[in-house]
């Protein structure tokens, strides 16, 4: 399976909100690098920690968080995707941003993920 195929499976699981299928795409030592200065920021290691981290997005947004992959490009074991992510929280302006996610794939599992949003300050304020 190519690196882009692995990331495509991850993207489909994320879009469907299927965290079990998403976890199956992750290497046992996978690292998720969440940027910013909000309570969700930092590194999350391993499928259980990453799924729990994603669960916090759903919990804080009362289930409104969505992540959609718009395009993907592969170079060896690296895949870059453009994404759109949205969420709503009571009393705050809706979050609707584009970003770039970069994946490092090892074998047929995602080993590392870096996220880059278009407006980190707005994202930090939303999740704070």
Question: What this model shows, in words?
Answer:
Strands 2-1-6-5-4-3 form a six-stranded mixed beta sheet. Strand 3 (66-75) and strand 4 form a beta hairpin. By secondary structure, it is α+β, with helices and mostly antiparallel strands. It has four helices and six strands; from the N terminus they run ααββαββββα. The radius of gyration is 14 Å and the shape is globular.
Short description:
The chain has 128 residues and is of the alpha+beta class.
How are the secondary structure elements laid out?
Blueprint: H1 3-16, H2 19-24, E1 26-34, E2 42-45, H3 47-60, E3 66-75, E4 78-87, E5 95-106, E6 109-117, H4 120-127
Distance between the termini: 38 Å
Order of helices and strands: HHEEHEEEEH
- Taking strands numbered 1, 2, ... along the chain, how are they ordered across the largest sheet? 2-1-6-5-4-3
User: What about the largest sheet?
Assistant: 6 strands, mixed
Any idea what the shape is?
Answer: globular
Oligomer: single chain
Strand content: 35-45%
Structural class: alpha+beta
* Cα Rg: 14 Å
Helical stretch tally:
4
Helix content: 25-40%
Q: Provide the low-confidence segments as ranges.
A: none
Would you count the extended β strands for me? 6
The residue-averaged pLDDT reads 94
């Amino acid at each position: 399976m190519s690196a882009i195929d692995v990331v495509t499976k991850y993207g489909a699981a994320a879009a469907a909100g299927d965290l079990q299928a998403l976890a199956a795409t992750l290497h046992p030592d996978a690292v998720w690098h969440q940027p910013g200065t909000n309570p969700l920021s930092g590194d999350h290691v391993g499928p259980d920690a990453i799924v729990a981290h994603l669960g916090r997005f759903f919990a804080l947004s009362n289930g409104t968080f969505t992540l959609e992959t718009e395009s993907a490009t592969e170079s060896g074991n690296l895949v870059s995707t453009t994404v759109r992510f949205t969420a709503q929280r009571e009393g705050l302006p809706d979050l609707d941003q584009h970003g770039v996610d970069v994946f490092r794939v090892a074998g047929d599992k995602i080993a590392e993920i870096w996220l880059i949003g278009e407006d980190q300050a707005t994202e930090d304020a939303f999740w704070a």
